[in-house]
Amino acid sequence: MSLVKLSKDSTIHEIVSIIKRDGGVIIENFLDDDTTQDIYQTLSQQLELIPNGVDDYFAGTKTRRMSRLFARLPQMPLVAMNPVFLDTAKAILQTPLQAWSGELQIELCPDIQVGVTQAIQIWPGQKAQPLHRDDTVWMWQHPVYGREARVQIMFAVTDFTEENGATRVIPASHLWDDERAPKEDETVAAEMKAGDALIWIGSTYHGGGANVSNEPRIGLTMSYDLGFLRQEENHYLSLSTETVKNFPDELKGLLGWNMSTTFVGFVEHDGIMMNPIDMLNNQEFKTTGII
Ligand SMILES: O=C(O)CCC(=O)C(=O)O
Ligand SMILES: [Fe+2]
């Protein structure tokens, strides 16, 4: 079995159906060649200043990991706001819940937020990363009951080949329970041309591949997660207020500067539970020293 490749012009319904069946899908030409080349130039220069990981087990001592990508890479909104990724994430994560509020039965729909951002440069000699599920960060249980926690992208900044450490994925492993162990021989390599992207969910087993080639592989990963979970990367400390203020409101909200529909993330001001995005955008609050 290999991963299905779809065109970026596929419908969200098609993309979501394949992800729900296989746990992941590859989108061809997710970004155009010029944008991909610009991202490559910026990231490869910045990665020169980043040291290798220090742990030989998971991070990899021949792997460089650089986060805070919304502060470092001007093209990040093109990845995050790309409808192929954003709408797929919304379609998978925003499943409604019926809840009672007194005598009223209300429908609640979870918000989504950016979890982690990371450029991952795997150098020759790096061995394969242990296979894992990324929703383990919140100790999610499997088979997933009710709702997935994460929809993630791995954008191929360079070509991804079996030899240079393309992400390895176990198709349909999102359906397994927590007893079943992932095995290397069940994986397939997410081979991609630079500009393609793998989109997968938090319950699918995967891991960075071994790089047995003579060139580094660069991937750019970013997740959308349920808005009421703790963000894996702390964007409040990683991004300056100035950086966030220059983004469109939707992106400010997605980065965490939004109060969820269930009031998660409010800031009190004069006895009112305020939405931080209103405070970020409103001059009046700047003088109060709240942000
Ligand atoms: O680098 C890759 O291909 C995958 C990395 C990964 O899954 C992780 O670090 O959690
Ligand atoms: Fe992972």
- CATH class descriptor name: Mainly Beta
How large, in whole angstroms, is the Cα Rg? 20 Å
Distance between the termini: 51 Å
Shape: globular
Q: Beta-strand level of the residues, as a percent range?
A: 15-25%
Domain unit count = 1
Task: Let me know the number of strands.
Answer: 14
Please provide the ordered H/E string of secondary-structure elements: EHEHEHHHEEEEEEEEEHHHEEHH
CATH architecture: Sandwich
- Main sheet: which strands, in order across? 1-2-10-7-12-6-3
Largest sheet: 7 strands, mixed
Number of continuous helical runs: 10
Looking at CATH, the homologous superfamily is q2cbj1_9rhob like domain
Helix content: 10-25%
The chain-level mean pLDDT equals 95
Ligands, deduplicated: 2-oxoglutaric acid, fe (ii) ion
Structural class assignment: alpha+beta
**Uncertain stretches of 5 or more adjacent residues:** none
CATH structural fold name: Jelly Rolls
Keywords: Iron, Metal-binding
GO molecular function: 2-oxoglutarate-dependent dioxygenase activity; iron ion binding
InterPro entries: Phytyl_CoA_dOase-like
Protein name: Phytanoyl-CoA dioxygenase
